Here is the input.
Amino acid sequence: MNAGRTPTLAAEPGIPVGQRNMTTPELYALRKDEAWPYLEAIDRFDPHLEAVQPEWLRRERLRALGAFGDQGFPDRKNEAWRYLDLRPLIARPMLPAPAAPVDVAAVQAALSGFERTGTGPLLVIVDGRFCQGLSSVEVPAGIWFGSMARAIVERPEFVRGAFDAVAHTLGQASLKAPAGKAPPGFKTPWSPFDALNWSYFSDGFLLQVGAGIDFDSPIEIIHVVSAAADCSVHTRSLVALEPGSRATLLESHIGAGRYWRNDAVTLTLADNAALDRAVLVEEGAEAVHFDRSEVFLGPQARLASFALLLGGRTVRHEAAIDIAGPGARCQFDGAFVVSGRDETNIVTTIDHRARDGETREFVKGVAAGRGHGAFQGRILVREGAQKVDARQTSRNLLLGRQAVIDTKPELEIYADDVKCSHGATVGDLDEAALFYLRARGIPAAEARRMLIEAFMRDAVERVASAPLREHLLRRLEHRLAALEG
Amino acid sequence: MLEIHNLHARLADGREILKGIDLAVGAGEVHAMMGPNGSGKSTLASVLAGREGYEVTEGSVTYQGRDLLEMPADERAREGVFLAFQYPVELPGVNNMYFLRAALNAQRRHRGEPELDAGQFLRLVRSKLKLLDIGEDLMQRAVNVGFSGGEKKRNEIFQMAMLEPRLAILDETDSGLDIDALRLVATGVNGLRAPDRAILMITHYQRLLDYVEPDHVHVLQGGRIVESGDKSLAADLERRGYGTVEAV
Here is the structure.
């Protein structure tokens, strides 16, 4: 398929050690066809990065690009991707956007209908790059908050250490899982789009909260896409909460038109740290959105995460949560609304590696039109992780004959003294409730909307931070007002 | 106000429940519809309110000169028909205030009146709450969720007071109430008696009628009205039971 291409080996990005003696045709044979446009794009993208990136990062990018080239796009035989149709994305590559001047006025206009939660710190990322003019990143002493590009220049050792620690932790995992899983001491292989993100991330943010600092007001990150159509945007961010610290974070993703966003965030919560996090996705109608979080919870750490997925043609919110410290608590909630031909997936792996951990996972979905929503929730309780208490719930409303919901709980338990449960429901609106509203004079369409909103509120109301909760409820209301019956 | 002629209705499974009801309810009147379990009382209430799952096979219902059966349930309500539910439905996540305001404003829009703003609405709510001794905290909760049986029934009458219907149908509103709750409900209903309003009370027992005096009493049995009279009929029935009605 790739015969006729004659790039030199030197131009070939990310060649793993074992392949360095191969001939060019042999190398090409290993790369997936659909990955090629992305492999070749590095030549145009690289010069921009070279100015700001240290050598270790450059090497890591090339290594990652090789890993992406080897894997290509996952197909539906890949269990973690079986509910998403990636063929349109394969058919029409969306290559990383080179840096371009930002039209601040246009972005401001795009943000005008989008209220803020308050007056706390704000970091705006436009087309994958920090936008100084729209941000206000002042924070008290003991907190570092700023763009990833700046962090790489100003704090290279911290950034490198934080990402290394992640890989290291993964490698140390004392796996007592069935055969076929990675043995101890091996780094977890890159998933394809995580690898692509490593290759191409243009910026992101770093939030580091010092030990014992309790920062109350929500810290907001807004990711906006305003660039020309058919490009991809990749950001990589890092949230590090040191022992006993506490923070509240809102990450919003908005945009218009057709683009592909592929973001990654690593969150590490040290002993007794607590993070309230909300992710809001309101992408453009033709947009593809992937965001992937890697989370590490230390002893007694507490994470409360909520994802509200309201817009985008293809949306995938993924989290891999490593509960490494004893007594850590993880609340992972989500809610999605799909209509038209939208597809939305929530895919989580919550890995209890320590004892006395707690997981509460609560996901609600509404599918209308020909929308397709899916939830895949895997909870793993490893040998020795005694007294873990994990509950998973998935509740869904199916509003049209052509709408589809898939819900797939997976509990894998290798410890004998644990409490684990899961439950899933898919149903239509309650006829008795609908009649009750109509019997009070409320027109049928409004009654339906009230019940759908009530169904979804139930999930949003689990958000503890009042400003965050109210903001999300307003966004939800806005989305449901436009929902077709 | 309401004229029912030879009304026949059956369930989706084909069972005929109403077998020729004739009833005329005038403005300002209070009618009591009594009868044993299974006589068709609640079916009559459901058919009048427009609940789905019933098929009218014969007869007509005219409300204020219009064909009631032609109207969808929500339009009937906006036209002033109110059903106090035998089993009020719980609506998790729907705030009571929000619900009531949506209902009231739907009706006001229908009548071409301006919608009430939050302040006007709150003042109206407070004045009516006193009437039924309902705490304001109940208004901030989800509709009927976690309400006691008595609270649910009082909430129905409170909604009725808020919506000020022309025709109120009370379906077994007295069932499951203790004597204090019954008195409160009765006070609420009596407060709503008006020359331009008709009330149809559906009940199994005479109890409620001790507190809300009907102008007319009907006995429904086997899907037909088998006897009609004034309020003394209710007392009669209490003495002799429903078993003897058909023989009369």
